Amino acid sequence: MGQKRLPESLQRFVARQTTRPVTDLGDGDAMEPRSPYGSYWYRAVACILLSGRIQAKHDGAPNMTEVNRVGKEANFNQHLTGRIGTFLVASDVIRFDRQGRYEAGPNLAAFWDHDDERLPAITRQAVARLVGYQTGHPFWHPKAPEDWGLIEFLSLFFTCFRGRALVESEVGQVLHDFTRLSQDDLVQAAEGLGLEVDSVDVAGWRLKLDGRGQKALVAALYSSEWAYYAEHETTGWWFASPTGLAMLGLGPQPPAPDLATVFQVQPDLSVFAGAGLSWETLVPLFRHATIRRIDQVYEFRLDRKRLAGSPAGSAPGEELREALRALEPLPSSVADLLGTKSKVGGKVGIRWCSALVKPEDPEVLAAIREHPQLKGYLEPGAPPGYLLIKSRSNPDNFVRRCQDLGFAVHTL
Fold first, then answer.
1. pTM given for the model
2. Can you list the pairs that 101-105 forms with residues at least 24 positions away whose Cβ atoms lie under 8 Å?
């Protein structure tokens, strides 16, 4: 639907806004992008969540303390991990349980394969859930957020401002004022776009896009990469991305990037794995190896100490051996390392009034004191044979972590 076919009131509204051609804000490559959803960094974040290295907060978003820990290990942007992780939860690519553990969601396979037919529905759901999340509708809620015609609103709004960028600081007010245009003209424009009139809920738009709703929508569009920000001559500009337009059916789908399928294991315990490999192959490496580099080809380092710190009852060596089966025969140094058994486990008593922990023997005490997921909870100065939880730490979280790792915890 071209600008000339818009009702005059909508054309006048667009003309009154301060805008700039999007083509002024990027180079030639930006006009023909690859889909971010098929990128190595989206796949890396999905694997990190599925590996168990990061747990979910009560609302489903990644625990940023653990995100920071993994980010430092891999020299990877922790803010990007948090944003993409939240998006993957909103899109049901990744799900979480009430114990804060992430697992594969029903949309993982389609998202991983960059299924062009299913991606629009998956990402539209994500945008709606992200707006709901920002306005108090948690991801774990059994009912979907209220349908107030959000997708129809975005389709109409982005059509009106197609190819134009708005001043970012004015976006909220423009969204608000757009909903105050003539309802008949908005419905007419929606009909011209081929939208179902029953889905054009102008009253709902006006109700939901208050100050809080405006901020939630802008944040959701950034998180899902449906909108971009660019600076030009000291002014920040906001505009629909090619990905956002494609997901709304307003433009061609950006193609998925070409991903590497390199897969090598070295005698020095290094593993190189391309982002184009299956998630079933990659997740064990993210779970049990040290992450050295996140790029087109992920670089890992197998580590005996990390395998020894795996949860009791698990078989990290066997899981890694299965992931590396295509590379057999493995170097002797790697085959030997995969025989490492977990040293985690045993009984732990806790006295709740003082947060004093009594491991059953020195081996269990040492395992807890040295474990990267537990040692941060501990205070120095505990009596001999005991461990002391920091006063600012939550003992419940410490106990849950111990149980997840295979320790049997009881009250003293």
1. 0.83
2. 101/52, 101/55, 101/56, 101/404, 102/49, 102/50, 102/52, 102/54, 102/55, 102/56, 103/50, 104/50
